[in-house]
Write a structure and sequence with these properties.
By secondary structure, the protein is of the alpha+beta class. It has 14 helices and 18 strands. The strands form three sheets. Strands 7, 8, 9, 10, 11, 12, 13, 16, 17 and 18 form a ten-stranded mixed β-sheet that branches. A hairpin with a 6-residue loop joins strand 5 and strand 6.
Length: 461
């Protein structure tokens, strides 16, 4: 059986099984350069053919901005002509518990003749993982995803009034009582959808909830981040609620970070293993040093939107300055040690400068490249910081070598463009599209108040 015939047969078998289970269509999803999920939905009867040849999508999705406007400023994408094929990944097809008539799968974008397309973000992460594997490394990645849960506007309210669905207190079981059915649906649906939740709880901000996804390989982690969004949104819709994944839904509230927990492995050894004194070996410290060295450019990919920049405020546990610490929740790089209870292999590094506006595949690829480069070069990290440098005087931060992370689109672009290692993760063509989108959004927002920008993007992710 040829490869084409094999894909067609797998599609036929899967489509028949889904149809017998009452599924009408398969949602084939990907994330664009704004972190926004996009999709095509195909009938299950079409799955055998779609598994082979995909479904057509425009090349211009690479230059959609958060407002769904298209910029033609990226080299190679300057006309409305061109088409791609979006191919579902059959090994990731999942029937959606909260949408019983639909299944879901991540898609890979390929050229019309089935070849690689340089703007496909999932392929970037796949190549990065293969590169690491060739060098003897693997990684485990887990997400913590914060989001706000709101009631629909009441009679007499403005259409976009934010009505918190739970009143707090922060981290209290009492807070979730008003949304008990929604939370239960998220937990049941996530389990049915193959998502392993570590926990779900009321977070610090008004109406805020956080769920954590168990660590897995990087490509699966990125896929599951998208699937988790679909799962949460379906549960919210079923219970008459609204959910905002936006980095900062409103200036008056807390921001939504999507923190990335990463451990780097060589064979069966977690290179970050250690205790409250830090990683026990030099490789773990070198991984942290690599991340810290590239953090300004990395943040341009992991927290790239204007909402991201508004969220990165000192004192908000968002990681506004470039430093690392052991269990320091103000640090953008928080070392989470192992312990006698959990074991030293529990250790990982949490990147706090990360949110829903990041394309998860690009974010994880850049993170891994930065950290592994530190290991390969045997970098040594500076001493960890246990305080909040935002409370220090400017000269004290300067003496400690702690600088504020880029605070504007122009500063982020300068950091990314000036870092060949991180820019190289994307490649010249994808980098051009990514930056063109960022510039277009900055131009759109130039004469607008920050609160108006945040409101425009509140429900986009």
């Amino acid at each position: 059986m040829t490869g084409v015939e094999d894909f067609r047969e797998r599609g036929r078998e899967l489509g028949a099984a889904l149809a017998a289970d009452g599924v009408a269509g398969v949602i084939v999803a990907w994330a664009d350069n704004n972190g926004i999920p996009r999709s095509r939905t195909v009938p299950v009867a079409a799955l055998p053919q779609v598994a082979v040849s995909g479904v057509g999508v425009t090349t211009l999705f690479a230059v959609f901005d958060t407002n769904d406007a298209i910029t033609f400023a990226a080299p190679g994408l300057q006309t409305p002509s061109g088409d791609l094929r979006l191919v579902p990944q059959l090994d990731r097809v999942t029937r959606l518990a909260g949408q019983p008539a639909f299944a879901w799968a991540p898609g890979r974008q390929v050229t019309a003749d089935g070849g690689p397309w340089p703007f496909d973000q999932r392929s970037v992460l796949e190549r990065t993982v293969a590169q690491l594997d060739g060098a003897g490394y693997s990684a485990l990645v887990g997400y913590e995803m914060e989001f706000g849960v709101y009631e629909p506007p009441q009679d007499g309210d403005e259409p976009d009034t934010l009505v918190p669905a739970h009143p707090g207190p922060a981290y209290s079981p009492h807070a979730l009582l008003p949304i008990d059915d929604f939370v239960a649906a998220v937990m049941r649906d996530a389990d049915a959808n193959g998502l392993r939740l570590g926990q779900i709880h009321a977070e610090y901000g008004p109406a805020q909830v956080e769920l954590s996804l168990a660590a897995t390989d990087p490509v699966t982690a990125a896929d599951q981040q998208l699937l988790a969004r679909q799962t949460v949104l379906a549960a919210a819709e079923a219970h008459g609620l609204r959910v905002s994944f936006a980095p900062l839904p409103t200036l008056a509230g807390a921001g939504n970070g999507w923190h990335v927990h990463t451990s780097l492995w060589r064979g069966d050894e977690n290179l970050l293993a250690g205790t409250a004194d830090g990683p026990r070996g030099t490789a773990g410290g070198a991984f942290i040093a690599g991340l810290l060295r590239d953090l300004p450019a990395l943040a341009a990919i992991t927290a790239p939107s204007l909402g991201s920049l508004a969220r990165l405020r000192p004192g908000f546990f968002a990681g506004a300055y470039g430093f690392w610490g052991v269990e320091n929740r103000e640090a953008p790089l928080r070392y989470v040690p192992g312990s006698a209870l959990l074991g030293e292999d529990h250790a990982n590094v949490e990147l706090k400068v990360s949110d829903a506006s990041a394309n998860p595949y690009l974010a994880l690829a850049a993170l891994l490249i930065a950290g592994v480069a530190g290991v390969e070069e045997n970098l040594a990290p500076p001493a960890p910081i246990g305080e909040d440098p935002g409370t220090w005087k400017k000269k004290e931060r300067a003496a400690a070598g702690i600088a504020e992370l880029p605070a504007s689109q122009a500063e982020q672009e300068e950091a990314l463009s000036g870092n060949p290692r991180i820019a190289g993760v994307l490649g010249e063509e994808l980098l051009g599209a990514f930056l063109a989108v960022r510039r277009a959004e900055a131009a759109w927002a130039e004469e607008k108040e920050t609160e108006d920008v945040l409101a425009a993007w509140r429900w986009k992710y």
